[in-house]
Amino acid sequence: MITMRCLILCFLGVFLFGCETTEPELREAPQIFTHFEPSYEYQNEPVPQTEQPTTVSKKITPPLKRTVIKKRPPRTTDLWVHIANNLHFTVYQNRALKSRINWYLKQPNYLPTVSKRAAPYLYHIVKKIEQKQLPMELALLPFVESDFRPTIASSQQAVGVWQLVGATAHHFGVKSDQWYDGRQDVLASTDAALNYLSYLHERFDGNWLHALAAYNSGEGRVKRAIDKNKKRGKSTDYWSLDLPKETADYVPKLLALSYLVKHPQKGINRPRLAYKPLTTTMNVGQQFDFSVIAKLSGVGSKQLHSLNQGYLKNQSSPNGPHTLLLPIGQETLLKSQFFRSNFAGEYIVKQDDTLYGIARHFDMSVTALQHLNNKQTSQISVGEKLLVGQPKTLPKSLTVDYKISPYLEYQEVAIPTLEIDYEVKQGDTLWSIGQLYDVPHSDLAKWNKLSASSVLTPGTSLILFIPQAEKPKVAPIEKDLLLDLQKTLNQPR
281-329: per-residue pLDDT in tens? Predict the structure, then answer.
């Protein structure tokens, strides 16, 4: 009898414990969205609510809460997989979305084709989106807007991969003149577009669908549609608004593409693309000619123009910008005299290093390396920083035709910079990274929109601009002497 009573009490205890334990609460889905599955009916369905457990006895001690640890997506070497892993909009189930999904499925090679055009830029766009903490879905917007064509123009004179109109581009800092149209410069227009989308997101109280609709048709039109529904007592969600057909189709196009990128097994060919930068930006620091840069760098003129379609002529404007996007990983570029003269940096001495070995590695003579570092002997120590090819003054002119000898021009030449990405490691701080690359940690914080005391999370990416070369010192030339020299140079030979 005692044994039977114990069994009954144990069974009752297990039953009551089960009543008290519930699954972790579902996170609130992003505004307006519910998950899409093609097999469902295309109608709105309420999100099921988790049943509340019935309290059986107040004397029972509630079980400890289970801690749900959100695992980080595994590290990938494929940029498209990284994009897919970070798409978080849940997709709404309706006929408009189904129609757009079917459109993409009828063109299974659409994404690989457009991805080839996006390849030089997509890594940089993804990193800019992550640094601004914006939804990864925005990386797909240039595909929807322009099929990633940098020079395409709409009937409303919207230009570039982000389809910016002149007024919007100007308001968000994109320069345009007879020399240069920043809307055709993929990275410059990306900065403007993301800033504009951030503004619209705030303008529409954190509703991304309203913000995207406003990006397509203007914030005034979307605001009027919302106000109209409010007056009539109707819902103001995106799907209930009375918007032009183009805008009504616009958001479903983005959501459908997002859904298929995340679920390529549904029938779309998701391309492969290395999860690393294929290009790097370089600030030349002065007006340049494409043919001169091509000769100095070893990159063909046609390829340079293809990567930098914001420049409308063979020269950059005298007033700038002077920034170029260049391919990386090419032997001709990395070994060119142009880079070796202007973008060499520091070397930190390691165990078993010798001055001779370092000099040979950087294709320098031991004497040159000693002179560069003010050394009287060949003695070096582990951890010591050595200059290896200290940046020299840039060529006085990188243009073919000039009216006056560049050696007589008295102007301040901008400091050249090379943009790199740095992945934060365990124990890194802004100060330690700044020391590693010899940049002020305050500059590092400013470049990445951080405070000087920010704590860094391992795995995040930071942007650095190197080297911090000294400005070339140009001695002023007396006016009379300058005039005499100019007259001499202008005399016929």
Answer: 877 777 888 988 887 777 888 899 999 999 999 899 988 898 889 887 6
In which domain, by residue range, is 122 found?
80-177+185-266
Instruction: Specify if 142 maps to a domain.
Output: yes
pLDDT of amino acid 344: 52
User: What's the domain count of the chain?
Assistant: 1
Cα(78)–Cα(74) distance, rounded to whole angstroms? Answer: 11
**187 Cα distance to chain centroid:** 8
Whether the CB-CB separation of 29 and 47 falls below 8 Å is answered with yes
Instruction: Name the catalytic one among 51, 145, 409, 419.
Output: 145
Quick: pLDDT tens for 251-274: 999 999 999 999 999 989 999 999
CB 315 within 8 A of CB 399: yes
CATH number of the domain within which 146 lies: 1.10.530.10
Three-class SS string for the chain? CHHHHHHHHHHHHHHHHHHHCCCCCCCCCCCCCCCCCCCCCCCCCCCCCCCCCCCCCCCCCCCCCCCCCCCCCCCCCEHHHHHHHCCCCCCCCCHHHHHHHHHHHCCCCHHHHHHHHHHHHHHHHHHHHHHCCCCHHHHHHHHHHHCCCCCCECCCCCECCCCECHHHHHHCCCCECCCEEHHHCHHHHHHHHHHHHHHHHHHCCCCHHHHHHHHHHCHHHHHHHHHHHHHCCCCCCHHHCCCCHHHHHHHHHHHHHHHHHHCHHHCCCCCCCECCCCEEEEECCCCEEHHHHHHHHCCCHHHHHHHCCCECCCECCCCCCCEEEEECCCHHHHCCHHHHHHCCCEEECCCCCCHHHHHHHCCCCHHHHHHHCCCCCCCCCCCCEEECCCCCCCCCCECCCCCCCHHHCCCCCCCCEEEEEEECCCCCCHHHHHHHHCCCHHHHHHHCCCCCCCCCCCCCEEEEEECCCCCCCCCCCCHHHHHHHHHHHHCCC
8 Å CB contact between 215 and 162: no
Q: Verify whether residue 409 is a known catalytic residue.
A: no
In a domain, 55, yes or no: no
Q: Is residue 37 part of a domain?
A: no
Measured at the CA of 150, the angle between CA 414 and CA 291, to 5 degrees, comes to 50
pLDDT digits (tens, 9 = 90+) for 333-350: 555 555 555 555 667 888
Residue 189 lies in a domain: yes
Q: Please say whether the beta carbons of 310 and 322 come within 8 A.
A: no
